[in-house]
Amino acid sequence: MALTAVGVLAFATSTACGEGITLRVGHFPNITHVQALVARNFERQGRSWFAPRIGQDVKVEWYAYNAGPSAMEAIFAGSLDLAYVGPNPAINAYARSDGQEIRVIAGAVNGGSALVVQPDSNLAAPSDFRGKRIGTPQFGNTQDVAARAWLMLGGLRITQTGGDALVLPTANPDQLALFKTRQLDAVWTVEPWVTRLEQEAGGKVLVEEKNAVTTILVSRAEFLSSHRKTVARFAAAHRDLTDWINQNPAEAQRMVREELRLQFRTDMAPELIARAWSRLTVTSDISLEALQRFVSSAQQVGFLHAVPDLSRLLDVP
To answer: Which region holds residue 155: left if phi is over 0, alpha if psi is between -120 and 50, else beta?
Structure first.
């Protein structure tokens, strides 16, 4: 807490003295966070994407998280200003703060998430998962909610700790190992782990969320209010980067692969990246209607009860 207080004081003093702004941005080491990975790789090459577009007095710092709930806790703690994150953790954080925290400022990626089952399994419908173990990236993250909602729609009783099937929040790298040793019957996760489960463990895709919103760009509400022009420039640069990625998919895939290898010690074959890429739609578009669907799923599984007015959630600067 003392270190946090010192950091906040230093940040406030720096801003007040006109020494520039430090923009702290969170993301995951997943292909579904492609804009962050490409931006970091540009910086590795000495060609910052964001700096010339948002102002040389703004320093961008990147922070990696395993899943959305962790990133949202960092937002609440004031340790992050922006984050690439799944919609469910963002909506949950918005509801927890009674609409006072979290603003969605852009879309990022649709698709790229799926339910993968063991290669020789006869699992085909939610009712077949009775007594089975399903891995998800983190409790309350977008894929965790999707898995629980799908099972419950199929008539199973799913609780936070058990029920007719056991949903086990597990870090993505551990999911692969547990799937290989058959300690998990299925995994609901995102790319590149969907393709890794296919290619390295023989998994079969049972449910693919081709059009669902997978990643959005959010801002800490107070930071957006205090630095709206800076956030607006970042969002505009994010949209330009999204366009560049769509216009240069081969180069973007190479950069993502290199960044995952150098920054996160995850080495993937170009063919694996290309296969995962085929499941993604890289887009900066987002709508309140799309976010509302996630609210309904979260309410269904009991993660949300009273949800505040969503009119402030989407705030594109």
So the answer is: left
